[in-house]
Amino acid sequence: MNLANLSPLAVLLPILGAALAFLLIRHHSAQRAVSIGILSVTLLLECLLLVSVWNGGTTSVTLGGWLPPWGVVLVVDQFSSLMLVVSTVVSLAVLIYATGQGMADGDQEAPVSIFHPTYLILVAGVSNAFLTGDLFNLYVGFEILLTASYVLMTLGGTGPRIRAGVTYVVVSVVSSVLFLVAIAMIYGATGTITMADLAVKLAELDQGTQNLLHVMLLVAFGIKAAVFPLSFWLPDSYPTAPAPVTAVFAGLLTKVGVYAMVRTETLLFPGDTLNVPLMVVALLTMVVGILGALAQSDIKRLLSFTLVSHIGYMVFGLAMSSVAGLGAAVFYVAHHITVQTSLFLVTGLIERRGGSSSIDRLGGLAKLSPLLALLFFVPAMNLAGIPPFSGFLGKLGLLQAGVELGTPLAITLVVGGVVTSLLTLLAIARVWNRAFWRKPEDAEYPDPVLLASGNVGVLPRTMVGSTAGLVVFGVALTVFAGPLFHLADGSAEIMLDRSAYIHSVLGDSVEVPALPQRDGAK
Amino acid sequence: MSINLTLLIVMGVLYACGIYLILERSLTRVLLGLMLLANATNILILSTGGYAGLAPLFSKETNPEAYSDPLPQALILTSIVISFAVTAFMLGIIYRTWVLARQDEIQDDLEDVRVAKTPSFDAEDDAIVPLETSEFAVTPTTTTDRSHPEATEKPHTSTTQEGGSA
């Protein structure tokens, strides 16, 4: 039996776990055990999926007895299974961190008990979006994860969270409506919404219609992925949520948008029709995002801006539509999910130890808590792209691909990428100098918790442990960068070739349409 | 495929009203706008299914022109359920805003406003290095108030008087 046939379980298990966790809403320890257990089993399953597609190639699973192109299919290829594994590792670490936080706070906040079911639903939505081979099912996956994220964002219902939640909900709903309009138009134009079938049929439309549908999908996904100028909502809404929630949002939700953009660009609309606008957008995202980060004094907001900025790198890799560029982008996505999430988790720890996340109110954390400093330093350097970390390797891959492409715009982007990397280092160094390196007394407005001596701001072991685990996972991505880059390049090759995907869904007899003329890419 | 003009006009009006409403500052109007947008999109999906009034698919031999396409209706059903859930959630949020702030309006992000107002002068990086760098206590007149505007508890500043920062 092919292991890939078990792939629906990656969605079903978290949903079942959510139901179970909801039943156990009054039994906190049982609830914790169920959600962590379910997520661990899901992770194990996804590792098996990754191994199976690494050897066996792309596989599709037909659901509900309806054959494609009518029914919904799930498609497991190297990219989707890699994303599944990385996202579940990150969600598991964040879940353990959140339970640690809940235990340390003694479950004081009443709605914490709905955290577990909602969180598992979020994971199910993310897995569904990664696995699905059907455009409308992708919309449903997005809605599952968004609805769960609305609840998580406004957890506790405090003033700032409600304020941020309103912006977030309205922006997300508008982007979903745009996506739905695009689906309706695509269905009207082709009569199908199975992605493999669309890959064949969209090519038969005239260029103008294709461009319209293409742009509509990209705008809808661009809002979700927070690509400039559609990124305005992100730094506004993410920082107010609880630390673990912000961490998982920063790691996963925007990357689901990036994933959908990758699928659109490679499977539905291959070729380079929109590569130039995408590259311009990528450049602006990188530069504007990081300039925003430099102006912030709150670490969470600063990290939100670096998140926006580094989405630009992924779009850059995608816009080159070459194996080297796309492979580097795939590697970068895996790296960035891990690093960004660990940084937000560390910020939660900083807030606990220092009483604040504003760098004007912090100082001397390196001496007060050396372990915390180490946990911040490693992913921070990784994010800034300092050798030998995976951030450096990913950026190097992107820059190499850009130079290889050699167009003036690509060279501009290479320069922009280097500048962004340096500015990221500057932003991170500012946090390091202020929050960690100077004396606590030198802070402009030192926080009372920071100056207090004795048993204040003790970090629970579970929280430190899960953060450390994620940091180690990030370092492991560096150590095993060779095989990972190999996998990323392989998945890029498969995605650009398209035949494996289409044949696995529609059967081998279907003829894959030839790619449109591609002048720029090698 | 022929187009149903009534549906098309209704859809256009709904989109126009919806977009107008979500640009308002009042949350209830934004919610109404989102509902109109969702319904306009449902009509758009419906109009991709062909004429109104055709029979549903009954047997395999039916001519494709003679039955109505069931898929758009399934899609609309899903999207109605989703927009129902989102509307309920939005109503909850609007009620919560009312309870907390007694106003039904989108509020500004204070931190964003603060960053926007920050002068390019950076207190720590751009300050003139004070000539007095000795460890001895500075006269009380030069000591600035170091409590954060947002601080709930005023930190004790008696032990740290190595020169004002700003």
Describe the structure.
The complex is a heterodimer of chains A (522) and B (166). Chain A is mainly α. Helix content of chain A is 73%, strand content 2%. Chain A has helices at residues 9-23, 28-56, 78-104, 115-131, 135-153, 159-190, 195-201, 207-225, 234-237, 243-268, 275-295, 299-319, 323-354, 365-368, 370-384, 390-405, 408-437, 448-451, 461-479, 481-497, 499-506; strands spanning 59-62, 73-76. The longest helix of chain A is centred in the middle third of the chain and has 32 residues, at 159-190. Chain B has 166 residues and is mostly helical. Chain B has a domain at 5-51 and 68-107: Helix Hairpins, CATH 1.10.287. Chain B is 48% helix and 0% strand. Chain B is built from 4 helices and no strands. The interface between A and B is large, with 51 and 47 residues.
Identify the notable features of this structure and list them briefly.
heterodimer; A: mainly alpha; 21 helices; 2% strand; B: 166 residues; 4 helices; elongated
Mean pLDDT of chain B: 76
Main sheet record of chain A = 2 strands, antiparallel
Tally of DSSP β-strands of chain A: 2
Biggest beta-sheet profile of chain B: none
Low-confidence stretches of chain A: 518-522
Task: Report how far the terminal alpha carbons of chain B are from each other.
Answer: 72 Å
Query: What fraction of the residues of chain B are assigned to beta strands by DSSP?
Result: under 5%
Kindly name the structural category of chain A. mainly alpha
> Helical element count of chain A?
21
* Average residue-wise pLDDT of chain A: 87
CATH architecture of the domain at 5-51 and 68-107 in chain B: Orthogonal Bundle
Helix/strand order of chain B, N-terminal first:
HHHH
Order of helices and strands of chain A: HHEEHHHHHHHHHHHHHHHHHHH
